[in-house]
Amino acid sequence: MKVDKLVRRLIEKFGDDVKIRTQYHVQVISPKGPHDIWITQSGDLKFKAYGNREVEELSYDVIIRRIEKYMTQKSQLDMMREMFNVAKFIEHCEKASEQTGEAVFCDAGFKDGKARIAAVFVQSNGTVDARSMMITAANITDAEEAAIELARAISPFATVYNDNQAAVARYQTDRVKWLPREHTKIADHFANVRKN
């Protein structure tokens, strides 16, 4: 198989998760890590799954099936981590409702023009509305501002808390307040749960 044909087919299947490393080496990035595919001079394909030491000579179809399996498969450890994150999230929600009454905590993470924003509305009766989404953003401050807007959309009357002073300063209202990072972990934990 030729490199350009392989790359086209991989991009059709996996989109932005395909990374061209050299003219003979392509990676497909899965949630666990990169899978390596090499093209020999004779056009054969060699494959090494993330975490494996063995390099195998396989057909394109077999490689695709293997990568798809890695893209969707969750290990027992992954599920345990997710359960732990959910437990931490619930604990934060309970503490927040005791301390603040009705409030929306929001946070954002930013890398390479993409951001994950999260907002968690904790009501005084203990009910929680949590939302998370991926967006594009110019920088971290813009990402945090988008998180604040998401929070305000969830509840226009509750106080919104965010840990980015520059983003909070853009708002001229008492309903958007700055809190140190350790107090916005409730939104941070929710974003982490949604990544898995």
Describe this structure in words.
The protein has 196 residues and is of the alpha+beta class. It has two domains: 3-72; 76-195, 2-Layer Sandwich (Nucleotidyltransferase, domain 5). The protein is built from six helices and ten strands; from the N terminus they run αβββββααβββαβαβα. It has helices at 3-14, 60-72, 76-100, 140-154, 165-169, 185-195; strands at residues 18-22, 25-29, 34-39, 45-48, 56-57, 103-111, 114-122, 128-136, 159-162, 176-178. The chain has a five-stranded antiparallel β-sheet with strand order 1-2-3-4-5, covered by helices on one side. A hairpin with a 7-residue loop joins strand 4 and strand 5 (56-57). The model has no long low-confidence stretch (mean pLDDT 81).
What composes the largest sheet? 5 strands, antiparallel
Rg on CA atoms, Å: 22 Å
Q: Give me the count of strands.
A: 10
Domain count, please report it. 2
Overall mean pLDDT: 81
Q: In CATH's first tier, which class of the largest domain applies? A: Alpha Beta
